[in-house]
């Protein structure tokens, strides 16, 4: 991967797109999970939100753990070897390809994001076992067909794929539009594919207040939804046990009594 890869753009072009004058969700989340890829505005907002609702730190931590458990389950128990991760965010520990390829070295992973800072760090994600493959697409959630078209250069879309969209659909203000985007993506995947979604939810006054403060910051807004709206993304699919649940309650490795305002599920396309 060169510094001026045509798929990712030149390093100078990427840097020019990074706006540090206001917070950004990927950098804000990175700060909450203990990363270093953030700026002063992200940290200022993060500290302010912690004062309003300290529980958002638990949401960030446990959502990441949910991702790891879901990917492991799909790779080991369901035999999935292809993963399409949309809304990648900034690289931290146990990224999708690392979890998947530990369980199945021949797994193929495609990451999708269009944030310039994520793009600048994409090369850190583009590592792979010799048996598998990892790729990155600079693309927009609002163009599902383009995502599928580019993903098909790495993934075999005639075989099952796990579509992963974590902490991303909240950026789509209209719920019906968000559902349509998910439906269009799943329509391009074959029977036996899986959908993995989690998002923050409007299940406490603290989370609602934190969301309102975040949306006043100048960052791209993030809208917390009711649990029923999270469940609606899985309509027509076969939910794996325990269904739509708090991320801490979805097949935990160890019992976690933490109550969090984040729900997720994994479901199979019949």
Automatic annotation (TrEMBL):
Which GO BP terms sit in this record?
methylation
Any GO molecular function: methyltransferase activity
Cross-referenced InterPro entries: SAM-dependent_MTases_sf (IPR029063), SAM_dep_MeTrfase_SAV2177_type (IPR006764)
Q: Does the keyword Acetylation apply?
A: no
Keywords tagged on the record: Methyltransferase, Transferase
Q: Which domain of life does the protein's organism represent? A: Bacteria
Q: What is this protein called?
A: SAM-dependent methyltransferase
Please report the organism this UniProt entry assigns to the protein: Streptomyces anatolicus
Give the classification, highest ranks. Bacteria, Bacillati, Actinomycetota, Actinomycetes, Kitasatosporales
